């Protein structure tokens, strides 16, 4: 694909500009991008934090002044820092800014619940391990109640599941 301005050099910069809710996409060569004022160095290092920081400003905050002064008791990070940078300061920030983060997630994703794909092989192993843990508790209870036939059945089921996990590994 060639540059949309000079039509000669190959497009290396894929530039999207939104002005007054109008989106314009352009495929530019490095030279034309620099002439247009696109910071080519920064464009290549655009990360998730930059995206989040940009989207946070579009989320609606009824008490924006008060909310921006909320801070994390552990690291002292303020919500306004998160809005500016797009990253949190420490694990406790998730608790300190919980209500604000929920609003941001709803705005960005439309929900606060994960609805994407799961790693199938690992999630299957995890489910089997959880089942084995539950069966071990049942086994302990059966032995305590001296229900040895049930205990033997549970033991065999545990062995079968454990062999399945080892075969998948």
Description:
With 169 residues, the protein is mostly helical. It folds into three domains: 13-46, no CATH class; 51-109, no CATH class; 120-168. It has helices spanning 30-36, 40-44, 48-56, 64-68, 79-85, 93-96, 98-109, 120-144, 148-168; strands at residues 13-19, 22-28. Strands 1-2 form a two-stranded antiparallel ribbon. A hairpin with a 2-residue loop joins strand 1 and strand 2 (22-28).
What percent of residues are in strands?
5-15%
Q: Based on DSSP secondary structure assignment, what is the total number of beta strands?
A: 2
Largest sheet: 2 strands, antiparallel
**Which strand order does the major sheet show?**
1-2
**How many individual domains?**
3
- The helicity comes to 55-70%
Mean pLDDT: 79
- Number of helix segments? 9
Q: Give the N-terminus to C-terminus distance in angstroms.
A: 44 Å
Class from secondary-structure proportions: mainly alpha
Query: What's the overall geometry?
Result: elongated
Order of SSEs, N→C? EEHHHHHHHHH
Radius of gyration: 27 Å
Ranges where pLDDT stays below 50 over 5 or more residues in a row are 58-62
Set out the fold topology.
Layout (H helix, E strand, L loop, with lengths): L12 E7 L2 E7 L1 H7 L3 H5 L3 H9 L7 H5 L10 H7 L7 H4 L1 H12 L10 H25 L3 H21 L1
Antiparallel strand pairs: 1-2
Which key terms come to mind for this protein?
169 residues; mainly alpha; 3 domains; two-stranded antiparallel ribbon; 8% strand
Brief description of this entry?
The chain is mainly α and 169 residues long. The chain has 3 domains: 13-46, no CATH class; 51-109, no CATH class; 120-168. The chain has 9 helices and 2 strands, in the order ββααααααααα.
């Amino acid at each position: 694909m060639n540059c949309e301005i000079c039509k000669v050099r190959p497009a290396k910069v894929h530039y999207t500009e939104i002005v007054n809710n109008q989106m314009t996409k352009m495929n530019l060569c490095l030279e034309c991008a620099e002439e247009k004022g696109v910071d080519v160095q920064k464009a290549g290092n655009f990360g998730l934090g930059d995206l989040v920081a940009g989207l946070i400003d579009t989320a609606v905050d009824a008490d924006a002044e008060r909310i921006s002064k909320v801070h994390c008791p552990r690291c002292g990070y303020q919500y306004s820092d998160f809005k500016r940078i797009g990253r949190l300061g420490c694990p406790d920030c998730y608790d300190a800014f919980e209500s604000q983060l929920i609003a941001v997630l709803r705005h960005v994703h439309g929900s606060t619940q994960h609805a994407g794909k799961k790693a199938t092989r690992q999630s299957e192993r995890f489910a089997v391990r959880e089942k084995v843990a539950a069966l071990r508790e049942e086994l302990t209870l059966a032995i305590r109640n001296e229900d040895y036939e049930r205990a033997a059945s549970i033991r065999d089921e545990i062995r079968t599941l454990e062999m399945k996990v080892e075969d998948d590994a």
